[in-house]
Amino acid sequence: MRNPLLAGAVVIMATAALAACGSSADGNGPEAAGAQRPGAPGPAVPGPSAATPTPPATPSAGEPEQPAAGPSAPATGPKTPSDAITPATGTFTKKQKEYLRDRVPKGMDPAAVLQTGQETCDKLRYLVKADRDTAVGAIATEEIPDAADAVAGLCPQHQDLVDEAAYAYPDGVHTGKGLRPGAYRSASPTAACSWQITGAGGRELSSGSSDTGTSRKITIPASARTFTSTGCYAWLPEGAEG
To answer: What is the CA radius of gyration of the chain?
Structure first.
């Protein structure tokens, strides 16, 4: 389910160019001097407790929105050699060249590939200024796809958002090793948010719902075997910065 703030980010970026990759603390970080900022369109866009949980070996399955056309992760097939990646005009910074390495399919404009990553940083910059929990939730739900790669290569000041998202639960069914005991809060829940925690043999340990759209808090005990969430968008670790 797309978050309204995320939809707002798309509208704003479609009508006015945002400064790239601002700090997740103040959102005012300047773009590197001399950086190539291509105009090719990118894709539309669309968490712990008293005790710190162990990050999951693999992300819990959610219901991510499919990204629109435009590669932000390495595409399959032959790639343009790093020394041949040059923009039509201007120059790429060292940081941009590192991000583009092994990401530009032969015959594709590298500026279009870079634009995708830069717009991911712009979306995060917009969201973190509007509501930080929604920014983390958008990464956890993969409504902003490949955010980790864009952040690592182009806007590392947002790494704290990616790190927190690794502990979050998007809507869906989470079982087994994907469960991490601790306290969590819902980020941007809908008015139809509901959840259930069950233990061994399917015995219900706790459940609840919210028809107000306000954030709720839950505790996932060590005895939990399944955690199911619907309409709550994402659950963020309560011990993290909100």
So the answer is: 19
